[in-house]
Amino acid sequence: MVKPLVIALPKGRILKEALPLLSAAGIEPEPAFSDESSRALRFSTNRPDVELIRVRSFDVATFVAHGAAQLGVCGNDVLMEFAYSEIYAPVDLNIGHCRLSVAEPAELAASDNPASWSHVRVATKYPYVTRRFFEARGVQAECVKLNGAMELAPALGLSSRIVDLVSSGRTLKENGLVEVEVIAEVTSRLIVNRAAFKTRAPEVTAMIDSFRKAAGGLPDAA
Ligand SMILES: Nc1ncnc2c1ncn2[C@@H]1O[C@H](COP(=O)(O)OP(=O)(O)OP(=O)(O)O)[C@@H](O)[C@H]1O
Ligand SMILES: O=P(O)(O)OC[C@H]1O[C@H](OP(=O)(O)OP(=O)(O)O)[C@H](O)[C@@H]1O
């Protein structure tokens, strides 16, 4: 019997936005998937040829890059940070809209000129993207890796700047920070393991087409 295709979905905010797309693509998870008290991580669907796993957003890319899942959904912030050559991202799902930005305390920004920096210390979940962004204009970025609550770092003297995701800007504002540069616009993508794209071409291509139609058929999530 052919193994089911495994689709990796991120827990958290993206999952809510991804579920209508999944449904529009003809995939209905088993009831346990929406049961918050369930500790299961792997789920069947209405289609015997499709299974779902629910993992952390950064881990979606890792599962797909290693071929443990054939497809997945994750933000291009995650794809940029890992830069996995094994991942192909054929469909922009038009969900998870935000941007990856550099921010600093409002009082520092008042007299600061980012063009004059030669060295910066940055707290971020995205050290690879941050270093590359600054390197491209000759600035050396010393990164302190955090997994959340980056906005605390400047006030507590961990770093003068942060690189983090911004959507409404509320988190920055409530922590006395302002956005000084945008590194990248972010949306979530359907991602595919390149080897699976070749070895299981008919199934994977059909799945890509279903998601492309589903994303195109929904109103803009922004
Ligand atoms: N404020 C936001 N608005 C819109 N999309 C966002 C926002 N924050 C994050 N995202 C998108 O959602 C993805 C997952 O972020 P989320 O905050 O749900 O995960 P997390 O809590 O940071 O990580 P973990 O999976 O480790 O718990 C990000 O990679 C990004 O693409
Ligand atoms: O501009 P805003 O609309 O305020 O959104 C930005 C916040 O959203 C994300 O965090 P999230 O809420 O996912 O929490 P996290 O720190 O646990 O990742 C991001 O890391 C920012 O902190």
Automatic annotation (TrEMBL):
Q: What does this protein do?
A: Catalyzes the condensation of ATP and 5-phosphoribose 1-diphosphate to form N'-(5'-phosphoribosyl)-ATP (PR-ATP). Has a crucial role in the pathway because the rate of histidine biosynthesis seems to be controlled primarily by regulation of HisG enzymatic activity.
Please give the biological process terms from Gene Ontology that the record holds. Answer: L-histidine biosynthetic process
Q: Does the keyword RNA-binding apply?
A: no
Presence of keyword Ligase: no
Q: Which protein, by its recorded name, is this?
A: ATP phosphoribosyltransferase
Q: Which residues form the ATP phosphoribosyltransferase catalytic domain?
A: 56-211
Q: What is its main location?
A: cytoplasm
Task: Please report which protein family the annotation says this sequence is part of.
Answer: Belongs to the ATP phosphoribosyltransferase family. Short subfamily.
UniProt signal peptide = none
- EC top class named in words: transferase
